[in-house]
Amino acid sequence: MTTSTQLAGGSSGHEHLRPLIDTALDGFAKGTIERNGPLPARGPGADGLHSGAGGFPEGSCPETGVGSARALTEMSRWFSQHAIDPADPACAAHLHTPPLAVAVAADTVAGAVNSSLDSWDQGPSGVAIEAEVVRAMTSLIGYSPETATGAMTSGGTESNLTGLMLAREHAGRAANDAAVRGRPRILCSADAHFSVARSAGVLGLGEDAAVEVGLDSRRRMDPDSLRRALDAVDGDGDVPIAVVATAGTTDLGTIDPLAEIAAITEARGLWLHVDAAYGGGAVFSRRLAPLLDGLERADSVAIDLHKLGWQPVAAGLFCVRDATLFEPLQRRVAYLNAEDDEQAGYRSLLGRSLRTTRRADAFKVAVTLRALGRAGLGALVDRCHDLARHAASRVRGTPRLALHSDPALTTVVFRYLPRSGDPDSVNARLRRRLMDEGRAVVGRTEFAGAVQLKLTLLNPNTTEADIDALLDAVVAAGDKECA
Ligand SMILES: Cc1ncc(COP(=O)(O)O)c(C=O)c1O
């Protein structure tokens, strides 16, 4: 048996894996040291980034392979050397978390075991562990453990699509003939994630089925505007099928007033989906969890543990208040979940997802929850929130910077104030300068058409001094752009 045909499982799997993991880690370590910072310098023109794996003398798919050890060392080194490292304190652009080592180690085991959750006979322990994770998370949401359930997803995008698909089916069944009554509509704020409108498109409703609800002065969904928007939809003869509230908008981390919105949806018998992809991790924090009051009244919830949960991608979670709401996804498939097998206790999770094959992403989450506990994860959330507050006060105290608003969770939106030149162009260019120099990865967004910079702080090991240095680098880059 050559090293290339050794398998990861079986009684010798661990013996095959151990040296290969060491080899891969050596390459990873070398590449990380060679990169020497949050990203490779010179942006898209960085050495080797164009050629990629094709830059190796044998090409990307040689006729004769180079062997596991060489492929792993060379390519792990290249991959990490040219990567962006979310564990570097100067990498603060996106909801792109630095994963915990314990979660990555657990994920390696999940890869080796290679369960699939769509049928019991591809992963009994995976099926059981996902149920455990769902139980733990639904109870943190505040759902009743007797009725609630859920499933791991690839992330907020898939969770939002799943929630809206179930909402559409639910509304269709309730109305019995929704098509005749009018066009289905989904109500969300202007700051809702773009995947909400895209889900409407994927569902065949058209992206313009997403109706924008007005914001209050803190850019939260305004309940009075929601009432008016619902009345207008009714007045047009259209059919509201769901309200999507956001708990943690992508840029500002704003949390819509969930309890007030729930009161409106409950009174009108409407589906409430809460996109808590970002802010849902606040359930771990005693300090921030009260911001999510009302989450337990939602019909469905999206939470991404690859954001405020420190998991490697993918670790999305989609939960419903009542397991019966999953009914439209149930399928009886002869080769996966025969009725008599299920009656005999061989239960699958096929009916919990739009996917068929589904890896045991819950395993790394289960290990992390047990290793750190709620309080351990809550401390990480609180630390990142503290860092955001520090960054905001530092921005406030820096004459060349202007804060957009106080941070709600762990993001800080601000802009550089140039002495001369077009502020939008200077902010955009200073961000690229920081990347080209290999110094920092700062986020970019826009409000009212004005370019803003953003720090998304998800690294609990970042220090206040790191934040100060990052903001100093922003100012220095801005000054150079104006020189
Ligand atoms: C509020 C919100 N919802 C949904 C998503 C999409 O999540 P994912 O990229 O995991 O699909 C994001 C991503 O940043 C988000 O911020």
UniProtKB/TrEMBL annotation:
<protein>
    <submittedName>
        <fullName>L-2,4-diaminobutyrate decarboxylase</fullName>
    </submittedName>
</protein>
<dbReference type="GO" id="GO:0030170">
    <property type="term" value="F:pyridoxal phosphate binding"/>
</dbReference>
<feature type="modified residue" description="N6-(pyridoxal phosphate)lysine">
    <location>
        <position position="307"/>
    </location>
</feature>
<keyword id="KW-0456">Lyase</keyword>
<dbReference type="InterPro" id="IPR015424">
    <property type="entry name" value="PyrdxlP-dep_Trfase"/>
</dbReference>
<dbReference type="GO" id="GO:0005737">
    <property type="term" value="C:cytoplasm"/>
</dbReference>
<feature type="region of interest" description="Disordered">
    <location>
        <begin position="34"/>
        <end position="65"/>
    </location>
</feature>
<dbReference type="InterPro" id="IPR015422">
    <property type="entry name" value="PyrdxlP-dep_Trfase_small"/>
</dbReference>
<dbReference type="InterPro" id="IPR021115">
    <property type="entry name" value="Pyridoxal-P_BS"/>
</dbReference>
<keyword id="KW-0210">Decarboxylase</keyword>
<dbReference type="GO" id="GO:0019752">
    <property type="term" value="P:carboxylic acid metabolic process"/>
</dbReference>
<dbReference type="InterPro" id="IPR002129">
    <property type="entry name" value="PyrdxlP-dep_de-COase"/>
</dbReference>
<dbReference type="GO" id="GO:0004058">
    <property type="term" value="F:aromatic-L-amino-acid decarboxylase activity"/>
</dbReference>
<keyword id="KW-0663">Pyridoxal phosphate</keyword>
<comment type="similarity">
    <text>Belongs to the group II decarboxylase family.</text>
</comment>
<dbReference type="InterPro" id="IPR015421">
    <property type="entry name" value="PyrdxlP-dep_Trfase_major"/>
</dbReference>
<dbReference type="Pfam" id="PF00282">
    <property type="entry name" value="Pyridoxal_deC"/>
</dbReference>
